[in-house]
Design a protein that fits this description.
single chain; 5-stranded antiparallel beta sheet; 45% helix; 769 residues; 24 helices; alpha+beta
Amino acid sequence: MLPPFDGNGYRKRVLAAIEARGGADATDPFEVYDLPLDGPLTDDDVARQVDAVWAFWQKQRDHPKYRGLVTALLASHDALAAQLRTAGGRQWLAGQTRAERARRDAARYAELDAALQRLTERFGGVPADKVAGLRGMAAAAGLDDAAFEARLRGHRVLGAEAPARSEAPADAAVVLRQVRDGLEELGRIEGARVPSLHALLELPPTADRETVRRRRDALLVVNRQRRPDRRRALVDDLLAAVGTLLVDGDPAVYLDALADDVRAALRPRVASAVLVEDRLTPADAHLLLQEAQAAGLDPQRAAAVVTGLAREAGSDAAVPAPPPVRVPGRADWQAEVSAACAALRDGRPVAARRHADAALSAAGELLPPIRAVRDEAADAAVRAEAAWRTVGPALAARRHAAAATALEQLVATAADVPGPGGEDAAELLRRSREALALADAVLAPPCTGRDREDALLAALDAVADHPAARAELAALPVAPPTGVHAVPAPGGARDVRWTASASAGPVEYRVLRVRPDGGRQVVGTTTGTSLEDGGYGPVTGHVVVASRLGVASAEAATGEAPGPRRTPAPPRAPAPQPAPATSAPPAGSLTALPHGRRLRLVHDVPAAEVRRLPAGASPPAPGTAVADPDAVGALVPAMGPGLAVDARPSAPVTEYVLLVRTGPVPVAGPSAAWVVLPPVSGAAVDGDRLRWTWPEGCTEVVAVVRPDAPPEGPDDGTRRKVTNTRYEIDGGLPLPDGGGHVALFPCTRVGGRLLVGCEAPADARVRLG
């Protein structure tokens, strides 16, 4: 028997906890309806509790703090309540809830466990002065003191009176192995080998302690300014090892250990050289000395290693040490400025900035030469970031010619500036050049007619901006569309339709309306074969013009007999597949609702899944059988019956479709679109008209009116579509009768379909009356 429902207690205990964790996405049905997960429950008890919670939600719809949460919970109520009211449904939901709570608990403990493990690796236990910070980390993850103490008991807590580092492994070999492993991992991350701690500091092995200390301190400052990631953690640990081994300890111990590693690596090489020549030749000795120094050894140790290996192999000739490479003034700021200038000349602004920061640390003030080189490095980095912003879209659109140009500039002037996702300019340049070479190979065989046109299109499919292919294809004529006609559409609009051009390739259609006075107005452009004309006023016809790569066809107008069509060559593509089977479209709806940084996809169809379509794809018609759901789009994770949650898209248009599994093959159901467009602004009442500022490029706006409350979306109220032409003719939108709330949503067209933006900011909303 459940206790009587207490609204105030439910708000403080349940709603507050859910809101603090992040909203409806971070809860489960049993917590939402305040039901015990494992206790015995009767159908009547659950029904009374569910009804009481639902009634309480209705009262909280306008609560200033919980309004958004309650709205999201109400959207999923029908589906969840139906399952909770039956014993079988509760049993299934209980299993799902236990698994989800286990995953949630593991995620809450993950950060704390990682911190405890890392501290144990570094110090041999958990230093006492770190416990308070760990406790705060646990509290932020929603763990109480009891849970934190239980986790902490599995680790040794080091006393505050003893140096924490003293509990670390005392074996120098262990420390040196950790340094070696850290340097290898850093080299893999940066794509360039880092052989030694001195190489990390960009100092010679003969640098004195004070020089090493100053460089370490400068790099610590720079490293702390980077975003927290694995690279920053590695560099922090390696700079700590610099302090232990090279500043506080004896650098000779570290260099001797490094010499052992170099000796083991070079031993087979020296043995092979002596075996063939019966001695170590000067040329071989010089090469091996260079390798030993490149591995981080000073000249004397490098000579000693090579000489010792030669004697092991039976060669008595001593190898003279090369003259030491003198790096004058490495400790002062002038040498650092010179190194920064050299890095800039080599096209490495990131390295130049490190040297400039080290110069600033050495000088103690921002002297003019240091400021100049810092500014130059910063300017180079800004130019590189701007170049990277052009590279991403160019590669996404397969414009490899433009991408190669930008990447060549990056490789020459900013080779050490990675892309936004850590991309390497040289690697991407190699891929773009391979794509260009592939396109060139497609165009190489001599051919004419349709075969040549197909080759040009194949080259442009590989490289969309291939200059030779675009120029040659642009010289070919484009066949006009045929069969242009207009049919009535809802709301007084007209749907203009036509038969596609016979020309292959990326053909675009421009549609114009013809007025009685002979004037023409652009309706829009599309790559499909229909476009809705929502303009008002008399129209005597429409004209459609096909274009490919900027080359226009002859005009095709409504009422014209179809003109002669170019006879295409025999089909080269595989035989067309049979049209998918269709059935009666499933009843129901799919709605996209924003919730913080997530998007909630709410539906009322049982046994259904939500799929996110690829960019540019259109949803299948309702009732269409879908043999391969993965080909339709990515699965959106389900959070419960009737609810799927996706990361909030940033693309202009993201479409979703519901696939209903009523048999062996899923069937397409309702669809929804999340549309992000530049918003309407400056909405205000001007006399008997509502006026606003149109976003750039927007020609249609949907005005949604709701009498009792502000519309939450483009479907939440009475809709009226307004074109920019009608807006200018009428001097604005006539105010609706009866007052209420108006929200203005911008529109766009994709493939001839009208898509409405999903959000209207405060500047696009007006309260009337």
